[in-house]
Amino acid sequence: MTSAEAPRPETDLPRPATPGRSRPPRAAGRAPGQTADRLCVESRSRSATDELLRGLRDEGWGITAWSHFLGRATLRSIRQAIHHAPALAEATALHAGLAVAAHPRHRRWVAASWLLTVTHLGMLENRRTLGPANVLTLIRANLPAMEDRLGPSLPMLALATDFLDGRISRATGTETPFGRYADFLADAALWNWYAARHEPSRWLRIAGLAAWVLPIAAVATSSFAGARMKDVPRSPWIRPAAALEILLGARALQRTIRSRQTGRLDISRKGIGIRPIRAK
Question: Which domain holds residue 103?
Fold first, then answer.
């Protein structure tokens, strides 16, 4: 046999078909090892949100389009909550504990936080649980509901949890779209609430709106207009929102120290516990 007539390698030879058994062709573009589970496909939160936004745009933005959009979004949120059942249980237990700790008139805040959490569990993507970093973020988001119990320590706890949740998520490799969006929304809700209630400077209250509320409004408007989910722009070097958090926290600490010093001075001046002796 000549070299030209050399047999082909065994891998090139056609394989006989197994009687009574056929293998469906692999879907084009699917990565090796990827399952065909529909819920895993839907857990791609960005592509699913883009599809919802495109449907709203294609249907013309009318009342019917909005009703279809809300209906589809609700169904997807329910499916994702079921798929992430451990995270759903964790979020419910966490918010139940926060509701017990909160003042009764502030429990609506906790209820709103729970609703936003359980309707966006799909943003956890492949993670089935919240994880410690997201738990800290949700606790920070609900600190305003516990103002009566925390008092002046509230802004310090907010700064501490904001520092820790980012460090934990990066150290453990558990960063998710849920964590990124929850972190920004928690900061926006907490610090604007705090500035409105406790910050005497009108300019810092306006700065809070510019640092958190305006970016959220701009991203939401751009996402709906472009039928594509957009991210809040964040720079690793220029972070005005983080600088504003530190400034608000430092001013809160300064006011607390000053009020305690003033209180001690008032007590010493009033002579608490010293009674004049009346002549009989």
Answer: 84-227+237-267
Which residue in the block uniquely carries the two structure tokens 């990565």? Answer: 31
Residues 65, 59 contacting (CB under 8 angstroms): yes
Per residue in 80-103, pLDDT (tens digit) is 999 999 999 999 999 999 999 999
Q: For residue 35, what are its two tokens?
A: 């399952």
Q: Contact 146/98 with Cβ under 8 angstroms?
A: yes
Three-state DSSP state, 182: helix
Q: How many domains does the chain have?
A: 1
CA distance linking residue 280 with residue 274, whole number of Å: 18
Measure the CA–CA gap between 188 and 240, rounded to whole angstroms.
12
- Distances from the Cα of 109 to the Cαs of 148, 190, 222, 224, in angstroms? 14, 11, 27, 26
* Helix, strand and coil percent figures for the chain, each rounded to 5: 70, 0, 30
Asked if residue 257 lies in contact with residue 86, where contact means CB atoms within 8 angstroms, the answer is: no
Instruction: Give the C-alpha separation, 167 to 96, whole Å.
Output: 26
Q: What Rg, from alpha-carbon coordinates, does the chain have?
A: 28
The per-residue pLDDT for range 118-167, each reduced to its tens digit, is 999 999 988 999 999 999 999 999 999 999 999 999 999 999 999 999 89
- 151 is written with which tokens? 């008092």
The answer to whether residue 3 is domain-embedded is no
